[in-house]
Amino acid sequence: MSDSIHAEAIAELGSPSSIATNVDTSTGDHAVQSRQPNPIQQAHGVYVTVHGHFYQPPRENPYLNAIERQPSAAPFHNWNERIHYECYRPNAFARVLNDRGEVLGIVNNYEYLSFNIGPTLMSWLEQHDLETYQRILEADRKSCDRLNGHGNAIAQVYNHIIMPLANDRDKLTQIRWGKADFRARFGRDPEGMWLAETAVDQATVAALIAEGIRFIVLAPSQAQRCRPLPTAEYPNPHWTEVGGSQIDPIQPYRCYLKPSADLSNGLSDTLPDSDRPYLDIFFYDGPISRDMGFNDVLSSSHHFVGRLGQAVRGDHRPAQLISVATDGETFGHHKGGTEKALAYAFTEEFPRHGWTVTNYAHYLSINPPTWEVELKPVTAWSCSHGVDRWQEDCGCGGGGLWNQQWRKPLREALDWLRDQLVKVYEEQGRKLFRDHWKARDEYVRIILDRSPANVNRFLTEHQQHKLTVGDRVDALRLLEMQRHTLLMYTSCGWFFDELSRPEGTQILRYAARALELAGDVAGVQLEKAFIKRLTAAPSNVEFFQNGAEVYRQLVIPAQISLEQVASHYAITSLFTPYARDQRVYCYSVHQMDYQMQRLGSLTLAVGQIQITSDLIRETRHLVFAVLHLGGWDFHCCIQPFSGRRSYTQLRDSLFEAMAQASAARTILAMNRFFGNQSYSLQDLFAEERHRIMRLLSQETLTRLDQLYTQVYRDNYGVLMAFHRDALEVPQELQVAAEISISHRALTTLQALERETSDFPFSNPELCQNYLIELEAIATEASHLHCQIKPLQIKQTLERLILRSLWNLLNNLNSETIATDAAWIDRLIALGTQLNLGLSLDRVQELYFRHLHGHILPDLAEPSDDRADGKWTIDQLRPLLKLGETLAIDLRGWSA
What we know:
By secondary structure, this protein is of the alpha/beta class. It has four domains: 341 residues, 7-stranded beta/alpha barrel, CATH 3.20.110.20; 152 residues, no CATH class; 123 residues, no CATH class; 149 residues, no CATH class. It contains 33 helices and 19 strands. The strands form six sheets. The protein has a five-stranded antiparallel sheet, with helices on both faces. α27 packs antiparallel against α28, α27 runs parallel beside α29 and α29 runs antiparallel to α30. It is globular, with a radius of gyration of 32 Å.
């Protein structure tokens, strides 16, 4: 970057769009430039649209409505979390770096990207990183302001269903849910919609038109032929065949609905094209989009711009659109760090070339189609066989020794189940809803807001008659049954080459939940017939043999009853003091009575609780007793509450048996009251089971830490001698040193975190002592070449640095600024000494935002004496020095 650009860009460093604003892109004098058309108001020049399809399949356990730990995503909890860390958040805070790798600007890429984000992913983002979620919404608002009211965001069919393979009713629901979710989040109606895998046919086009969607984005291979739109002068222009991906993607096209495809309007074959319903279509540039995903085009903004420039036509047309599209996860997850190349291209390279960054809706508003297109009958962007990847053994997604013969039987089994569940829904739904299909289409309102008040409003609006408590539960069961029926068609289940993969297993879990809900409402037993159909779906894994065994081995064991939720609550209550009202995943638990006694190694808890499902509002009143025999042995029993008298008798009898200090007598008494059905630690939900396993192991680990520490202390001199003479250290001694030092580092760091929880510090001297001790530990670890491995140490230090910076910035004091900045600098240096590889992205973002949003705008002139309350550069030097430590480019301020 040249010094002149650096100076201009730093002038308004805090604004995401300011970097581009200050770059000189003029090619002539100002008088000539002022006469050029405004490319935002009318089509003129080269426009660029980079579209990111951001999507993750729904991964939630259907019974818990939460994603459980996925070991393959380690060190993250699950794949959503990992990809978020690598892609979704980095694009909301994309760095523009100088030639020294320092942060020159932070750009919200979503302000410039055209994008769709799947509703299931947006829901996850809202729950797990509200800051990034709000940056995405803000980006759409800012793009609306910049582009005449046309935002970057477009909608998506709700849960990534392959639309040509869906029945007509499911097509409409997918579109309506996608629109409603979009409207609830972005505060406007979507103009465009992304189709899963860009899969399209005429019936899908008809449904999109009927629901008011203006445009879609497709691959060039999906077009069959095109021609100029008929005019009075040329009423029947010649068609050009473009079936080999030869369609020119630099302009939008109009796709008229064929008469045979419209099932509602009864279009006549004699109706002129100009009066037919239509959908506008953008085709992305296939070769460039492919290169973005599979070559090094995104390795730098220079390469990216150069590749886009190859598509610019030099034929003097008034306007042209360079449109590229790829999976949004390409930008950071599939190709690490490429969000930086995007940010620099958007804010520096494109303006320098005179290109206008736009989105499809805006470009359509200033340059409507002048050409018509006809599509191939049934197509998608990731299958060269139409949509066979999701219904046949077409070879797509394979490439190894495995086949996909399971795809067709799986779809046939699910289609059969869907049709059976339609019968249940129609028969039972007519009894409860005024219009049961309208109720399903509007059920997305509850999916977005499951508060009791919203559920009550919805049911009151749609009820056939005044619903009893049981009717309301059944109504919600039916709607949840339909939601899971739609989820079981999520495209990822067929995408790869084996049914037993997590994606295939997940859609079978949705099917299982739908089956269960149907049985609860109507008493129908469909599971055996469904499993029988799955036997026709062969697995490539010998252990499973077919889909039926996949279902038995991976799906049925994952089913959860309310009794299991109660056992989970009972066992974990021995380790976690619960409030009277407690949430356990998507269940609300009201504690009506709870008593616990400990006797030696035995612990007994007895209680009665009410459990309510937040999804279907089903409530059960249950009694539990749980006996912990020590170690890993638990005996937990559950039964329905049958009255206060019987509960009191049960409770008193169990505690009397416990008083005899006999585990056998207590278990016999429990079996007498509850029967032989019992739950153990293995029956807990995986997350809590693992937490309790760690708690139960803590005493043993503490003893081991003490033992390793003693070995380390006794052999410290020996260890130093080995290292001093560059000899190979005995593994046993090195391991003892690493475990001992890591344990000391963690306990000291946790103590420091507790002591600094309030600001100002209640005991500054103690905090200093803790930090001095940590620095000594780091020096010791360095001398002995110890690797500090516990992830908890890294995460704790990152939290401490972020909190310390927040306190500094929000409590700026001229008398303490130097001390406070030095404190943070020492914490960062500690992470470097310990070789923790600290992730300071959020620290950088906080510093950058606050400095340029609150401090520098009110900077006093050098001649001022800060009488007006403003800061001077000299006073801010400790803060600016800290910015240099954080790799923020502050040369223009600190000079």
